[in-house]
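ok, trying the design again with the full structure, not the truncated one.
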């Protein structure tokens, strides 16, 4: 966790944690959706970049783990009689974070992997941030995710550096981290796992 905290430019605000505690159903539903999207992203990379065996192996393992996490989340939801609504609006976080991704290769892959690393790092940080405030079952589950999520962060980052080769990518990492910080600290009307600060009474509604 120390490496992730040093990587990200800000901590998740306490206001987000409080909003999460007020909206546990939405937290779990959106968490399930995020796990599916993470698996899908890994699979898309496997289909698109078939000549990199390290990428193929790491993304295959990542996709399997994310789908396992999805299964664990929906099992908790089922036990708590929380209906799964996969159609709640996604937060703006991922789409806004990806906007500066370059459109030519290999720069596109480098940027995509950097974004993946940041999303995994923030997910890990939020699991750790909210876990101490949850009931025993959810706390144990969220803490159990830290090891795999931190590994996913490192896998994405190491792949980005490998694909970049001799090109320094510190400036690209900084660009996306600054963008991510702004998304985390700016207002969001609706609460989601990756949403920013709750801004209005609408923040609690799906």
């Amino acid at each position: 966790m120390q490496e992730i905290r040093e990587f990200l430019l800000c901590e998740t605000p306490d206001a987000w944690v409080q909003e999460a505690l007020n909206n546990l159903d939405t937290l779990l539903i959106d968490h399930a959706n995020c796990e599916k999207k993470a698996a899908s992203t890994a699979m898309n990379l496997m289909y698109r970049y078939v000549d990199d065996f390290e990428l193929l192996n790491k993304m295959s393992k990542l996709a399997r783990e994310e789908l396992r996490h999805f299964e664990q989340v929906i099992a908790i939801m089922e036990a708590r009689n929380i209906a799964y609504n996969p159609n709640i609006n996604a937060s703006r976080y991922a789409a806004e974070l990806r906007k500066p991704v370059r459109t030519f290769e290999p720069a596109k892959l480098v940027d995509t992997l950097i974004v993946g690393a940041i999303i995994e790092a923030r997910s890990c940080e939020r699991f750790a941030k909210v876990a101490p405030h949850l009931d025993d079952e959810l706390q144990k589950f969220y803490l159990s995710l830290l090891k795999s999520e931190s590994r996913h962060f490192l896998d994405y980052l190491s792949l980005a550096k490998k694909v970049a080769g001799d090109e320094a990518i510190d400036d690209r990492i900084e660009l996306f981290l600054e963008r991510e910080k702004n998304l985390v600290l700016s207002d969001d009307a609706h609460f989601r796992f990756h949403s920013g600060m709750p801004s209005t009474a609408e923040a609690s509604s799906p």
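Keeping the full-length input from now on. The chain has one domain: 23-204.
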